Amino acid sequence: LGVKQTEECFPILVDLLANDADYGIRADAAGALGYLEDIRAFEPLQRAFYEDTQWLVRFSAAVALGNLGDIRAKQVLLSALDSNEAVIQQAAIAALGEIKAVETVEKLLTFVNSDDWLIRQRLAEALGHLLAEKTIAALKFLVKDEHPQVREAARLSLQKLAKV
Questions:
Q1: CA-CA distance, 121 to 90, in Å (whole number)?
Q2: How many of the other CB atoms lie within 10 Å of CB of 79?
Q3: 0.90 exceeded by the pTM?
């Protein structure tokens, strides 16, 4: 429904996200709403993030909010950074980059020394969308990371920002 878009897709997906008993279906509906890139999905996705108790639904909602590219998602995604679930933090970091929330760089930089290399990788990728005073220095730090995927993500983000 998120890929083969028709007029009926949006209301069906919103209903599935809000009402399906299967959390896997709710998570898939959140993801599909993100693929639609329809800003009407902001409120249902925000509600799902705050109200659903299943981490997979919350993760999918965070990713989908990033896909929408709507800056209104900033507060939801900032709250996701405080999650106990690393995957939700990863999704929020990536999504903050996707919505180009430059004013969140300071908060994002608190993850630069995370024990989780995937979080550091998502941070390096997100910073490639967020040109700010401390972005380049953080990416130069991440280029020296112990994990090769973090180093590569930081290198690519530095290249991307050099073209801006």
A1: 9
A2: 14
A3: yes
